[in-house]
């Protein structure tokens, strides 16, 4: 490690910008990319490359951001929006004097730790007072331009608003810097505001520092993409998604159509799993090996074991053990667990329930606040009536039980081992082990009722006669 970096690097994230072009009531850096607030990407980077807790510069008006940062980072307040240099000035009193400072913009979630390590090393290996991250872009719109002296050293950084004639491909400033703290503090207090925006530009600091600045080119220009409006947010989201899908495919996951698959950046998927188009994997979802997901499966914050299949269904906050089969048009909600080899057919909802190994809920059923044992079969149209209007109640269905179609179990209730219910039963008391519960009115056939009460009704003979004509 270069001697200049022996005390580590303190990371400052500038996040106090108003973000007016987002047209949002939320702070710009709280908008999500890859399933995480943009600021979270920067905090993770800061912890990876920096020393100590990250320091975030925020505005007192950013209640959502300040709440999120509580316990995650130190905060420096920038009371008025005086520009990026003003933001760093607000952080200076909280910075350790012995460490260089790495300054990042809070709306750059695509930056990589390896790139920032290179930037810090270039600073440490030089005698310069600053290091600037740059890139050459075909469309440099929105970025400050790098101007160099004939010998190649940095001459100036010119903001786009102050140099509209500098069009076409150009080397640009990506807005990430390493500074000698004492050197940058001296120039920050002297920076002019005679520019198009009337702000204190941090980009003017490197050229103003007496010891000069070195530059480092980012290996991937996409790392410098910033978010100032919803169009740019979508572009950065697409880049993050492509990065995530590439990681999965290189680790042995088959993604049939990356352009039609949405996976958040924290999602983990095992080898030989196949992800079909239209699938969404969000939050902290983990998927095992040899699974088949989709088409159009949606999983958020789920744990999925090996060799599972999930069709066109919506799962959130649930766990699937190995070998689970979830067909199309099901909803499995928070607090539910599907045991090994269990099966969910079509048009079912399961919430706050555990379905035991080998059990089946084939179709059109609601299972809520329930405990199903092993090898249970739930007939079509069955319902656990768990809500009495004031609170929820539990249903327990023990191993080997069978529910006939259209059974309603009024909780709290228990169906014993190998207990059966007859189709159409409304069961209100416990069913003993091995018993059959029949809870329905006896059928009555009222002969001649149609002729007496519906004299104009067509008969079967009428219909057959019409078909023969």
Describe it.
- With 469 residues, the chain is of the alpha/beta class.
- It has two domains: 3-224, Spore Coat Polysaccharide Biosynthesis Protein SpsA, Chain A; 230-437, Hexapeptide repeat proteins (UDP N-Acetylglucosamine Acyltransferase, domain 1, 3 Solenoid), CATH 2.160.10.
- Strands 1, 4, 5, 6, 7, 8, 9, 10 and 11 form a nine-stranded mixed β-sheet that branches. The protein has a nine-stranded parallel β-sheet with strand order 14-17-20-23-26-29-32-35-38, with no helix packed on it.
Q: State the helicity in percent bands.
A: 10-25%
Number of strands: 41
* Main sheet record: 9 strands, mixed
CATH topology of the largest domain: Spore Coat Polysaccharide Biosynthesis Protein SpsA, Chain A
* Overall outline: elongated
Q: DSSP strand (E) fraction?
A: 25-35%
Count of discrete structural domains: 2
Quote the average pLDDT.
94
CATH architecture of the largest domain: Alpha-Beta Complex
Continuous helix count: 9
Task: Show unreliable segments.
Answer: none
Secondary structure category: alpha/beta
- State the separation between the terminal residues, measured CA to CA: 97 Å
CATH class of the largest domain: Alpha Beta
């Amino acid at each position: 490690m270069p001697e200049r970096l022996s005390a580590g690097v303190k990371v400052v994230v500038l996040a106090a910008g108003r973000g007016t072009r987002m047209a949002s009531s939320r702070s710009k850096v709280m908008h999500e990319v890859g399933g995480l607030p943009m600021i979270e990407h920067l905090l993770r980077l800061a912890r990876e490359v920096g020393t100590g807790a990250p320091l975030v510069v925020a505005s007192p008006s950013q209640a959502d951001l300040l709440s999120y940062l509580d316990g995650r980072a130190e905060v420096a307040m920038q009371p008025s929006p005086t520009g990026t240099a003003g933001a760093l000035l607000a952080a200076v009193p909280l910075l350790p004097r012995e460490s260089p400072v790495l300054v990042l913009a809070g709306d750059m979630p695509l930056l990589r730790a390896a790139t920032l390590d290179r930037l810090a090393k270039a600073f440490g290996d030089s005698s310069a007072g600053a290091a600037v991250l740059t890139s050459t872009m075909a469309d440099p719109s929105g970025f400050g331009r790098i101007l160099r002296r004939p010998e190649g050293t940095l001459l100036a950084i010119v903001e786009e608003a102050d140099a509209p004639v500098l069009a076409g491909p150009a080397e640009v400033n990506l807005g990430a810097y390493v500074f000698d703290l004492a050197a940058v503090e001296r120039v920050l207090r002297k920076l002019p505001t005679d520019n198009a925006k009337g702000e204190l530009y941090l980009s003017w600091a490197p050229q103003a520092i007496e010891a000069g600045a070195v530059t480092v080119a980012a290996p991937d220009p996409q790392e410098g993409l910033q978010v100032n409006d919803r169009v740019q947010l979508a572009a950065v989201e697409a880049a993050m998604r492509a990065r995530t899908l590439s990681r999965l495919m290189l680790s042995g996951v088959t993604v049939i159509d990356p352009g039609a698959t949405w996976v958040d950046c924290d999602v983990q998927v095992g080898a030989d799993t196949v992800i079909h188009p239209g699938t969404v994997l969000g939050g902290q979802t983990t998927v095992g090996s040899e699974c088949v997901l989709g088409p159009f499966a949606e999983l958020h914050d789920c744990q999925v074991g090996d060799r599972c299949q999930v069709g066109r269904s919506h799962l959130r906050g649930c766990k699937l053990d190995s070998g689970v089969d979830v067909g199309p048009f099901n909803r499995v909600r928070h607090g539910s667990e599907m045991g090994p080899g269990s099966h969910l057919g079509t048009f079912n909802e399961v919430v706050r329930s555990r379905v035991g190994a080998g059990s089946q809920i084939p179709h059109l059923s609601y299972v809520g606040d329930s405990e199903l044992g092993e090898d249970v079969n739930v007939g079509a149209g069955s319902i656990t009536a768990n809500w009495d209007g004031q609170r929820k109640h539990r249903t327990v269905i023990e191993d080997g039980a069978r529910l006939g179609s259209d059974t309603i179990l009024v909780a709290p209730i228990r169906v014993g081992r190998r207990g059966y219910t007859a189709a159409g039963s409304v069961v209100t008391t416990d069913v003993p082990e091995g018993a059959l519960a029949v809870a329905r009115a006896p059928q009555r056939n009222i002969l001649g009722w149609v002729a007496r009460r519906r004299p104009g009704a067509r008969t079967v003979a009428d219909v057959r006669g019409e078909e023969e004509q």
